[in-house]
Design brief:
The complex is a heterodimer of chains A (303) and B (245).
Chain A (H helix, E strand, L loop, with lengths): L6 E4 L8 H14 L4 E4 L8 H4 L2 H11 L3 E5 L7 H12 L3 E4 L13 E3 L8 H9 L2 E5 L6 H14 L2 E14 L4 H5 L18 E4 L5 E6 L2 E9 L4 H7 L3 E4 L6 H13 L4 H11 L5 E2 L1 H4 L11
Chain B lengths: L9 E3 L2 H10 L5 E3 L11 H10 L3 E4 L5 H10 L3 E8 L11 H6 L3 H4 L8 E6 L2 E6 L2 E7 L14 E3 L2 E3 L7 E3 L4 H6 L4 E4 L6 H19 L18 E2 L9
Parallel strand pairs in B: 1-2, 2-3, 3-4, 4-11, 10-12
Antiparallel strand pairs in B: 4-10, 5-6, 6-7, 8-9
Chain lengths: 303, 245
């Protein structure tokens, strides 16, 4: 028997795209994306939901018809009664729910659920606790270093719980009750009037000396560097990780998923896979700093 | 077993540790750290921690309004503690990896945010530039007081905006809110002590003692006397007042 083959999960879209872009993304992902699971719904800000709400059921149906497992995401930081009610509705939906906040733990008894990357899971004891509570899988925080990932992947195998790692995309670094896009425009969150991000990957935040550093995405702060673990596929497989998560980005996302799929299947050398991802996202800086480096933003060097 | 160290309670954030403490040390009084990310403005997450582990007190994050704190105290039978002085985390606490992104050290993994080991001050073109993990995030004119370079209080450029994108280098001072916080059902006030000096403790703790005692005795609370040891000589009452968002 060879090493088990890692699955690919597509995380929820973090950015505030137009309904059209949203629909197109999921239609193409359903039809062509070589991925196993798709987490869909609003993670960042409930104010965006009305804009995508009509598109979500259509996307779910198309993904399911294509044989993908569809998982609904909970909101990262529910702060309003209606957000709390909406979270309960997710659990009633019959689909697996990915919890990104522990407030839903009371409601998931008996329901299918997994743990998303915004819940703190840093050790095997936490993993075991969540497994005993019924979590099917855990998507680890992007901050987790390789030694921890390896320990938790081993524990997950013994517990029968999938352990997923943030494989590609701007890393979620922080979430706040405050909406920074709106703050910069002199508006508060509760009256932000939906200041839309013009940039498809949030608004770049630069240091005083002009270095790209962070990206502001409504109430969320992301890394400006893109986490890319395609070059670490072999190590992650050996560690016993069960899936890699790809976070939706603009550009040819299906081609990106194919590159990851080929790398994980051994159909493409890792160096070649890394080169392919570079050509798919030439404007971004890649990093695997949280997993392998000295700090999260450490640029991935060639070779 | 815990009596060997004779603490009144332990304060925890990690689910695995909470579970260990609750099952292996049944008489140990558990408090929920702000790092446990029970940050939502309802009692659901706190109720989960109370049910699962029997926590008796929760330290609330600094992203809630006084009104939201009152609602939590109404909904759940757990004592609450809120931060009133010191650093102001503008991000949901326990869920922020800005520091490890820049330096490799984070509150969740290392218990430190924006650690001094990664701070650098350098004079460049007549200005004093502050770096954290090599990232230039603040500068002041020569002779001006430079704030400690905390990641979320840095000076950045974003589009046409130049400024403190996330928060000004101010620190939290909710002394003026002692009465509303007490009326909201808060049990205890927390003064940030980590990475702070003895001088800070000497100045701040007695001042709050006096303020709390004044409130208890029905006397007015003197305001403004706590501003000396703060970061950047500026204070804010943070999210407790709704305008902050």
């Amino acid at each position: 028997m060879g090493a088990p083959v890692l699955g690919l999960t597509v995380g929820p879209l973090l950015f505030n795209w137009s309904s059209r872009a949203f629909a197109d993304f999921y239609a193409r992902l359903a039809d062509e994306g070589p991925v196993d699971r798709v987490v869909i719904g609003e993670l960042v800000c409930s104010k965006r939901l009305p804009f995508d709400e009509d598109e979500i059921p259509t996307a779910i149906e198309r993904l399911q018809r294509a044989g993908k497992t569809v998982v609904l995401t909970s909101l990262a930081l529910p702060t309003l009664p209606r957000e709390r009610a909406a979270a309960r509705d997710l659990v009633q939906s019959g689909l697996e729910v990915a919890l990104n906040d522990l407030s839903l733990m009371n409601a998931v008894d008996g329901a299918a659920f997994s743990i998303g990357p915004l819940v703190n899971v840093y050790n095997e004891a936490t993993l075991a606790f969540l497994a005993r509570r019924g979590a099917r899988g855990v998507s680890l925080p992007p901050e987790a270093p390789y030694a921890s990932v390896r320990t938790m992947a081993r524990a997950g195998a013994a517990l029968g719980v999938g352990v997923e790692v943030w494989g590609y995309g701007l890393a979620p670094l922080a979430i706040s009750a405050r909406r920074y896009h709106a703050r910069m425009h002199g508006l508060s969150k509760d009256s932000c009037r939906f200041v839309f991000e013009r940039d498809r990957h949030g608004l770049a935040v630069r240091t005083l000396d002009g270095r790209d550093f962070l990206a502001v995405n409504g109430v969320q702060t992301l890394s400006c560097a893109t986490v890319n673990l395609v070059g670490d596929a072999t190590k992650l497989t050996q560690a016993g990780v069960t899936a890699l998560r790809l976070s939706p980005h603009s550009g040819d996302f299906v081609a990106l998923a194919k590159t990851f799929r080929d790398a994980l299947d051994g159909a493409l050398a890792l160096k070649e896979a890394l080169a392919q991802t570079r050509s798919l996202a030439p404007e971004t800086t890649f990093t695997h700093g949280f997993l392998m480096g000295a700090y999260g933003a450490e640029p991935l060097t060639a070779g | 077993m815990h009596s060997a160290h004779d603490g009144d309670a332990v304060i925890l954030a990690d689910l695995g540790l909470l579970n260990y403490a609750a099952t292996q040390h049944r008489n140990l009084r558990l408090r929920l750290s702000v790092q446990a990310a029970a940050a939502n403005a309802d009692a659901d997450a706190i109720a989960f921690y109370a049910r699962a582990f029997g926590v008796k007190r929760a330290v609330l994050p600094r992203v809630l309004t006084v009104h939201e704190i009152a609602a939590i105290n109404h909904d759940v039978n757990v004592e609450t503690e809120v931060s009133v002085f010191g650093g102001l985390c503008v991000m949901a606490e326990g869920r922020c990896s800005l520091s490890s992104y820049a330096t490799g050290k984070s509150p969740n993994i290392n218990g430190a945010c924006s650690p001094a080991s990664h701070v650098e001050y350098r004079e460049e073109d007549g200005r004093l530039v502050s770096r954290l993990g090599g990232f230039a995030i603040h500068s002041v004119a020569k002779g001006e007081a430079a704030p400690y370079p905390t990641m979320c209080k840095g000076f950045f450029q974003a589009g046409d905006y130049r400024g403190h994108v996330f928060e000004d280098p101010s620190s939290l001072d909710a002394a003026a809110l002692i009465a509303p916080l007490a009326e909201a059902g808060v049990t205890a006030l927390k003064i940030v002590g980590r990475q702070r000096s003895r001088a800070y403790v000497e100045a701040v703790v007695p001042a709050f003692r006096r303020a709390v005692d004044a409130y208890g005795a029905g006397r007015p609370i003197a305001s403004g006397e706590l501003t000396a040891p703060t970061e950047g000589q500026k204070t804010t009452s943070g999210a407790y007042r709704k305008t902050w968002r």
